[in-house]
Design brief:
With 356 residues, this protein is α+β, with helices and mostly antiparallel strands. The chain is 31% helix and 24% strand. The strands form four sheets. The protein has a six-stranded mixed β-sheet. It has a four-stranded mixed β-sheet with strand order 3-6-4-5, with helices on one face. The model has no long low-confidence stretch (mean pLDDT 90). This is Phosphoribosylformylglycinamidine cyclo-ligase. Belongs to the AIR synthase family.
């Protein structure tokens, strides 16, 4: 009998094609749940397909595109060996950027890079992505799983995603619509969301030495469970507001904090004043601040401090906007207002102390 080949192979280099194929089979049931009527074809093609004839109902459709990841929150998921929520975070980070300009998220694609393909783990990640897409009202039309042995450890991975949305040209939201007297309405976050985890991990793990399994009375659950709380997806809530015509702009509060992200939609001649006394940040923000002796400016420029999305609305629309958000189960309140910018003013000023 001929001797077995002893040369190099892809498998010997650490890439398992059969495991990748099995991962695709396991994720199919979840991808099927994250479809829209415009979705075309099945999982496994070289490109995701979406029926663009749906755009014919627009007078002048403008496509919006966004891409993002979830940062080092993946390190927490890996340490906890819980992988079915990180995809939800990924969708939130992408679609809530799209909706800021008033765009309806249409579809997403994902990229999962792993040190070693463990089919069940990959399927759990995709499950979270699919479930997030359902909550966002968009389709998951494709993605890529790449195995990078030698660059990532066997249990390490990273995720990224890209999304496309559409908005009518004359309905694009942004700074040009904001006027003096507009109200700044804050929408409550579900926790840390997916930003600032490098600081959080440094403070809680390295400095304080806390374990993920530690029960924290202020949370009513373990530290790990709190840190993996999925990012709130606001897209359908924001679209409900945008379709009423009662919104001038949105700001997605991610890295850079409330002031940094709200400033991105405040015109140069105007100023947003936000009163900290209108809300109390969740316990996790206080914990990070105290455990790491983190100064308030550092916290506020890194974490969302309890506000995940902001809407800037005309004053006569405040009651209706708040009522709509309440009906949709979104905690919201008037946090500030827009005024003329005086010389030397920043775009956004946070005033007062947080409510206790």
């Amino acid at each position: 009998m001929p001797a077995e080949p002893s040369g190099a192979s892809y498998a010997a280099a650490g890439v398992d094609i059969e495991a990748g194929d099995r991962a695709v089979q396991l994720m199919k049931e979840w991808v099927k749940k994250a479809q829209r009527p415009e979705s075309v074809g099945a999982l496994g093609g070289f490109a995701g397909l979406f029926d663009a004839s749906a755009l014919k109902r627009y007078e002048r459709p403008v496509l919006a595109s966004a891409t993002d990841g979830v940062g080092t929150k993946v390190a927490v998921a890996q340490r906890m060996d819980q992988h079915d929520t990180i995809g939800h975070d990924l969708v939130a980070m992408v679609v809530d950027d799209l909706v800021v300009c008033g765009a309806e998220p249409l579809f997403m694609t994902d990229y999962i890079c792993v040190g070693k393909v463990v089919p069940e783990r990959v399927a759990q990640i995709v499950k979270g992505i699919a479930e997030g897409c359902v909550l966002a009202g968009c389709a998951l039309v494709g993605g890529e799983t790449a195995e990078h042995p030698g660059l990532l450890g066997p249990d390490e991975y990273d995720v990224a995603g890209a999304g496309t949305g559409v908005v009518e040209a004359d309905a694009v939201l942004g700074a040009d619509r904001i006027r003096t007297g507009d109200a700044v309405i804050a929408m409550a976050s579900s926790g840390l969301h997916s930003n600032g985890y490098s600081l959080v991990r440094h403070v809680l793990f390295e400095r304080a030495g806390w374990a993920l399994e530690r029960h924290v009375p202020e949370f009513g659950r373990t530290l790990g469970e709190e840190l993996l709380e999925p990012t709130k997806i606001y897209s359908l809530d924001c679209l409900a507001l945008a379709r009423t015509g009662d919104v001038h702009a949105f700001a997605h509060i991610t890295g850079g904090g409330l002031a940094g992200n709200l400033a991105r939609v405040v015109p140069e001649e105007l100023h947003a004043r936000v009163d900290r006394g209108t809300w109390s940040p969740g316990a996790v923000f206080d914990l990070v601040g105290k455990a790491g002796d983190v100064a308030r400016p550092e916290l506020e420029s890194t974490l969302n401090m309890g506000v995940g999305m902001v809407a800037v609305v005309p004053p006569d629309s405040v009651a209706g906007v708040l009522a709509t958000l309440e009906d949709r189960g979104v905690g919201a309140w008037v946090a500030g207002e827009i005024s003329e910018r005086a010389g030397g003013d920043e775009a956004v000023t946070l005033t007062g102390d947080y409510a206790s």
